[in-house]
Amino acid sequence: MGFLVVIILIGVAILIYEEIRKLQYWKKLSVPCTTPLPIFGHMARAICQRKSIPEIHKEMYDKYSNHRYIGYFLFNSPSLMIRDVELVKTICIKDFHCFSAHREFLSKDTDPFWNRILFAKKDREWYDLRKIVAAAFTQSKMKQMYPFIIKCAMRLTSSLPEENKTISIDSYDLFFKFSNDFSLNTVFGIECNSFKDPSNEFYKVAKNAFIVPKLKGLKFFGAAISKSLAKFLNAKFFDDDTKEFYIKVIRDTLEYRKNHNVVRPDLLHLLKEEQKERLQNVPKELDDPSDTYTPPLMTEDDVAVQLVGMLFTSTYTFTNYICNLVYELALHQDIQSRLIAEIDETWRKCDGNLTFDHLTNMKYFDMVCQEGLRLRSPTVFMDRVVTKPYTIPPVLPHEKPLHLKPGQDITIPVYCFSRDEKYFENPEKFDPERFSDENKHKIIPQTCLGFGYGSRSCVGYSLALVETKVLLFFILQRFRFVPTEKTPIPFPLDKINISQFSSRGYWLGLQLREDIPY
Ligand code: HEM
């Protein structure tokens, strides 16, 4: 018995020693790093919900203002945090081939489904799939989808009660219903009206799958910061029932379309078209004829997996973005009034027929959307992984060459760049003027990373922006958003969310406009 206790004590001592040794990682590379805790690294306060991840990032970012990069620990895994905008450009664009992967959020054995979606793919498989998916998001394809966006936005506005008093709304629920109906429409071509019929099966499944309950949120939080924790928690992006539900919907829709010769310009159709082309053009896809790599064919199942992945992003991230933006509009009535004036003016000019070009030519609207993305982007950090050995050459007097090995995790602190006074005067202020024609040249692109940056940036960004503009156009034609006593002020950053999310919901007042000019 005594012998067993000694063995256990020795085992524990070795484990603790190993953990402490790992924490010397950045010191050995002469990279500055605040003192981490064994096992938890810099994440202890996030776990206790005392500080959110962006706040922890900002503390470190601000502390080492004379450094281009700093070290930190996601639990016991070392990550290199980039503080310098030129280095961000090098990593995401100039030397992208050495940093072409995302962090492995959920490993293949923890969640094989997640690993098949574009965001999780690596190397040539990613490159290949990206070409196919991106082709479904060109400007001309956006124009084809535009009528669907209008239709869904009209449905939302006609569900809003036109009362002569301010009504309190849960804007998250409102926009979630819209984006679910819209995503189903543009992704699968399915007609659904969650405003009229909130008990419809699609809305129920999406709510279960995408409105993340606290426990699942905690699992994702753990998974986002540590691979081993993800495995331990058995964190999966979608549960099996959700996956089967959507895959069946896609199969049935494809079958129906084949049997009834239906053609509809939604993402399902566009990806199927790309898939067909892909099958015919396989040999031409290879850039280098001596390359023996054979691009994998895109099966029907692959199309389905990508669509379910996109359904999630377009519902979850979009809802988060538009809720944050509308929150700021409610708090800044002067900005909302100027936007409403531009909307009224455009409506007059377009004579009731709001085309894609009218919408995309609205300058102030664009400035408002860009500023919403800067200040309240759902994305608080981006990640990359070193895929080929890479040396960051010294530039500052205190630097030495930093040799990075494949597998090294990189963090790009989106939230910190957007709040750095070096780049934005009064950074906490919601100020669309930053993006005016006179001012926008002062903005460094690497400091506004809401949709990511470089070759791996968001493929759906133009869809998300058009969607936001159409929706707000039709709402603000008749209504104003105002704060009520239920609206949390200032913005309460949720501490267990890896997005910029309000911890006390998105309650706002909706007021019928008194000055509707038509
Ligand atoms: C406001 C809404 C959205 C935001 C803030 C957002 C943000 C992002 C970000 C930050 C990335 C990672 C970029 C990087 O690492 O450089 C990303 C990737 C991606 N997004 Fe979005 N996104 C939004 C909407 C959408 C929509 C509507 C779709 C599609 C329907 C979409 C599809 C994707 C895909 C497929 C990727 C992976 C790209 C790749 O790895 O090559 N996103 N998004």
TrEMBL record:
Q: Name one GO molecular function term.
A: iron ion binding
Q: Please tell me whether the keyword Oxidoreductase is annotated for this protein.
A: yes
Q: Keyword annotations for this protein?
A: Endoplasmic reticulum, Heme, Iron, Membrane, Metal-binding, Microsome, Monooxygenase, Oxidoreductase
Under the heading CDD domains, the entry gives: CYP6-like (cd11056)
Cofactor(s) recorded for this entry are: heme
The way it spans or sits in the membrane comes to: Peripheral membrane protein
Q: Which residues bind heme?
A: C458
Q: Which Pfam families match?
A: p450
Write out the GO cellular component annotations. Answer: endoplasmic reticulum membrane
Show the PROSITE patterns listed in the entry.
CYTOCHROME_P450 (PS00086)
Location(s), subcellular? Endoplasmic reticulum membrane; Microsome membrane
At the top level, the lineage of the source is Eukaryota
Q: Which family is this sequence assigned to?
A: Belongs to the cytochrome P450 family.
Q: What is this protein called?
A: Cytochrome P450
